[in-house]
Amino acid sequence: MPKRTDLNKILVIGSGPIIIGQAAEFDYSGTQACQALKEEGYEVILANSNPATIMTDYTFADEVYMEPLTVEFMTKIIRKEQPDAILPTLGGQTGLNLAMELSKTTILEDYGVELLGTRMEAIEQAEDRAMFRDLMHELKQPVPESTIVSTVDAAAAFAQEIGYPVIVRPAYTMGGTGGGMCDNEKELREITRNGLSLSPVDQCLIEKNIAGFKEVEYEVMRDKSDHAIVVCNMENFDPVGIHTGDSIVVAPSQTLSDREYQMLRNASLKIIRALGIEGGCNVQLALDPDSFQYYVIEVNPRVSRSSALASKATGYPIAKLAAKIAVGLTLDEIKNPVTGTTYACFEPALDYVVTKIPRWPFDKFAKGNRTLGTQMKATGEIMAIGRNFEESLLKGVRSLEGKTEELYLASLADLPDDVIDQRLVKADDERIFVLAEALRRNRTLDELHELTGIDLFFLNKLKKLMDLELVIQTEGLTYQPIKKAKQLGFSDAQLARLIGTDIDEVYNYRMEHQITPVYKMVDTCAGEFASETPYYYSSYEDENESVISDRKKVLVIGSGPIRIGQGVEFDYATVHSVLALKEMGYEAIIMNNNPETVSTDFSVSDKLYFEPLSLEDVMHVIELEKPEGVIVQFGGQTAINLVDGLNRRGVKILGTTMEAINETEDRDLFEQLLNRLEIAKPGGESVTSVEEAVQTARNIGYPVVVRPSYVLGGRAMEIVYGEEELLSYMEETVKDYSDHPILVDKYLTGMEIEVDAISDGETVVIPGIMEHIERAGVHSGDSMAVYPSQRISKELKQQCVDATVKIARELNMQGLINIQFVVNADTAYVIEVNPRASRTVPFLSKITGITMANLATKAILGKKLTDLGYNTGVAGCPDGVYVKVPVFSFEKLRSVDTTLGPEMKSTGEVIGYDRTLEKALYKGMTAAGLKIPVEGSVLLTVADKDKEEMLGIARTFHELGFQLYATIGTADAIQSAGIPVKTVSKVGATEMNIIDIIQSGKVQFVVNTLTKGQQSRSDGFRIRRTAVEHGIACLTSLDTANAIVEVIDSMSFTARAIGNREVTQT
Amino acid sequence: MSLKQLVLEDGSYFVGEGFGSDSESIGEIVFNTGMTGYQEIISDPSYCGQIVTFTYPLVGNYGINRDDFESVDPAILGVVVKEHCDTPSNFRSEETLDQFLEAKDIPGIAGIDTRKLTKIIRRHGTMKAMITSMDRPVSEVLEILNQTKLPIDQVSQVSTIKPYVVPGRGCRIVLMDFGMKHGILRELTKRDCHVTVVPYDTTAQEIDRLKPDGIMLTNGPGDPKNVPEAIETIKELIGQVPVFGICLGHQLIALASGADTAKMKFGHRGSNQPVKDLKNGKTYITSQNHGYSVSRESLEATDLELTQTSLNDESVEGLAHRLHPVFSVQYHPESSPGPEDTENLFDVFLENIQADKKQQKEEATCLNAQI
Description:
Chain A is 38% helix and 19% strand. Chain A is of the alpha/beta class. In chain A, helix 5 crosses helix 6 (129-138), helix 15 packs across helix 17 (456-475) and helix 27 runs antiparallel to helix 28. The radius of gyration of chain A is 28 Å and the shape is globular. In chain B, helix 8 crosses helix 9 (248-256). By secondary structure, chain B is α/β, with parallel strands linked by helices. In chain B, strand 11 (172-177), helix 6 and strand 12 form a beta-alpha-beta unit. The longest helix of chain B has 26 residues, at 345-370. In chain B, the strands form three sheets. Chain B has a ten-stranded mixed sheet with strand order 10-12-11-13-14-19-18-17-15-16, sandwiched between helices. Chain B folds into two domains: 3-150, Carbamoyl-phosphate synthase small subunit, N-terminal domain (Glucose Oxidase, domain 1, 3-Layer(bba) Sandwich); 155-360, Rossmann fold (3-Layer(aba) Sandwich). The mean pLDDT of chain B is 96. Chains A and B meet through helix 9 and helix 17 of A and helix 3 and strand 15 of B.
């Protein structure tokens, strides 16, 4: 059926900021949807508050609203744009929830706006636990015994009836937020209470535990003619019990016979048909490993994380087709974009094995609760493709960019057996390594199966790998075993460890003996039809399918999995670099391993290698393609970390040279550089021993900032106020970083300024100078950033500009550069120089209209910025005020301290922009999910050093009509300033203590700053966690608190103006 | 096991590891793109005379069970895989693929680049191939291949020798066995049919004596023109009782009705083949295994109506007789392996039978009235 002609303008809802459970996959699906709709000739309006995304570029939509994704703002957009329809099914749970909320108002009716993709009733049927169960009963599809509760007591009563363990699933939350498995009533009560408060409809499902069943997912599509197909099925490595987002997932299923496969396929198709979904849908099922008994666990009536994975795993672009289906096209008339000759109405056949491994943030949150359960904790994921399971798994392991490139973690080798056993029973983020370790200790497969419930098929494969390790250990560098090992995915690093040599020797041996991979195509049809998709993966096979053109080529290294500190903004830069290369006539080749991203969409680049980003994998592609050079500036620290190795192998790094990169990263060279250029920097030194650290700190004076060199996102960075603290830091951290020196710097407190620039070595274009709301000490990724700067003098600005230009010219930088300054006593001190794309590139590009990654790519390839129409200095200054507000995922990460500091903790960001700072902040905070009430209560509990400063905040809150609560010390300070306050007792006190106040929901804000000392630290921790778990904003920086007070202040005086405000557009 | 080689008629050869039986084998090499269902494929008699390459690289993961056979004795001549699993995992698994092939004297070869092989077959079309030990030089194998004439009597090899009955209380079906997959029988008995399975060369008279309500023509191996006796029988049956043909049975209906068939370059073999129903405009995902197809142009002069085509290459996938309750599909509605989306065709067949019975009754009454 042809596309609909009664629609002209379609509003697409994006998914907002990156949070755990909703990452870059929705940038991919949204971008595809926008493209597909434009391709069909529709006018596309996009709403998404996330400035780091590619979809919010004007290239992909006709109008872009980076406004908060709330009913309030969506209503304004609808009134202004009057679209014919809304497409909410590609914006994750956020999009779906927003559509549901909108449909409860009259706005859609008033303006005759139609919902495309999935009917509202179907969304409700899939999302509402009770309705879903009824539908499944009607369809005769088995669901685990369960009940819906809205009180904790009801939950306890039901669990009593069906017996423990049970699973709690809050209604309408994503990524299993607030859910969990409970072994006893105490756990049940706690989790249910939390779940009820997180569920927007105050409902939880209490469900019979079917742990131990195989977990299988089907990605299905349906169109309005009722064609329904399976794009991909997937099997979880772990049985039911671990959230699928936290599971290693394999596609296609490995242990299902055709009968089982078809049985579950039938169930999935029956469900999508019953729901009447027009688009994509994800069905999660549990299958008894010992019978044909299965259960339907969950249905997502929308494009999901799994569909992004399925799209990359098969080559079949689900989101793109879902968008086309939404406007009336049917699968049998849409061409399969991969083959170009066959149709989309078919089911992809794979001739390879795909493994997805989650990327968890526990390298940063070592003290967080690392146990895996029904609540997702991963921030991102990688995917790897191989011709056998082992290869795909091991390629996946080295794609993670963790501490290891193989199934070996040195830290596990020393653990006693019983700890290994415990960790097998209670899965955590290191599960796969723990399994390998257990196998090395000769645990039998049956024992492991007993402890973990993991299918023997997978355990056997692991065993095979461990057995081969032993062979390698005895035989060393000999042809057959090495070849076998490479076929099974062993990395050179693993071989080097086993043989006791280094990766270069292994690599050279392989080159000599021609043990090198070939590249196979991902073509959706297992070779049945000729395809020209430029989408490849490596394997140690016979035939190479990647044909090398005679065009000039450039290889761009992507940024790997989404993690804290390296998010979707690096994919944004990568994609723009690729597009710029294509524009310049180069063959743009990309390597990346993140299935969620736009950069791994094969239609973006000329050639996509879906590969790990370790040195050997990158070298293999370089040896084959022989590009002019490699661009490493856009792939975050991932790509930068490759520079050394690539350089060693004689590969040309395009743009800023390795020497220049070293000068910014090597402590001593960096210091010399700044001294030479006479640029101010905080005093400090790099040290390699505790004694040196103590001496240095004494010399420069406390407080000092300590951190290991060469780290990303401020990992293990701390501000230390005294010698005792320094000693304990060195003790805890130096052990881990013995290879790298520790940097001890003077901690200058003051405003932080961030500059992004593009340089060709002569001309240095500065699109923006941003100031941070939070003073230095809070990681730049966790600070609110304001553009243009509001508080700094012209003179200071000039200091920043001068320093930037000087450094860029001195290092002959070609490409992007990011510099962070701290202002102290009217001087801007340089604290960090990053010779690469920064987190703020997309934010600034969108505000100023300067396509920074594009320009930088041109500069990297030798174009002069002056020829492109740019001169040295600050460029572009649009009207209005723009703020970037960080977004955290603390409610998903138990036991993680929420206090802001030098270590980055946010997972994503949103933008807010308007005519004034306060309005922009209001929008930004709202978009970040913060509720800003104009009246209510606030609880203050701050460290002694902050009491003075806190008084201003307390006073304004009071004047605005807020009731103040405070703990004793803080309350004293407030009272002596003549401000009324209610004193609450400290943590642990019997009556009405601070925790009770927070739990009872009496306060809307908690202002808490980090107190020193063991007891107060742990009290503070409890306060902060309690606030997070009850959805109450906890402000750990007085600067943030101040900003909020100012916003409330402005709202109180100009309350009417907010309501009438028009939505502005960029 | 020892190294083995797979040599193709066009001179390409692969070295791999032997598994299953150690015997040599010459057959037509084809590929199947299904990701599950190797047990059904291996035991599907339609593969008689063929060496099958599995494009999915891991075969044998869930072992071999006692339930999923499509015939008692596999007629397949060889199995080519990237990797076969010696540690299968599934609650129904009874033995490994290797053990099964060995027991059934079917040679297998593993460890070769099956994607490369598939592309060769795609480009050059299906051809003769041999799985053999490394002792023979490639030139010698090529010589053997050159001189080998592939058999044309596959149907007689796999059809039942004697008729037998699978009793039921519903419609009486005579099933002409050209190499039946058990799935077809299962679909009929599931619908309580009384099925008499007869050999491929049973005459129309013999069938008539069984007083069938309907005739089921099954799948089977090879070129439909190699079973002329069946074509004659079907000619006589059309117009007598409702007929339903699957795969080879479909091709035989076409030939019996005056249409023609032709060999395809590399055929359709897999579980993901889209077929468009020209009547309702819908497309179904079907399971297929055929190397021949009915020529579309040849239908013009016949009483056959084209009802379904392949969405991808528009080849003939379904036919219906304009005058009689006779219809057929090129694909496998009984699935096993593959999607079960078109299973309802068996219901259509039974509905045809009911309608036919009713009509006969009416005609009889009418006749009586006239008398």
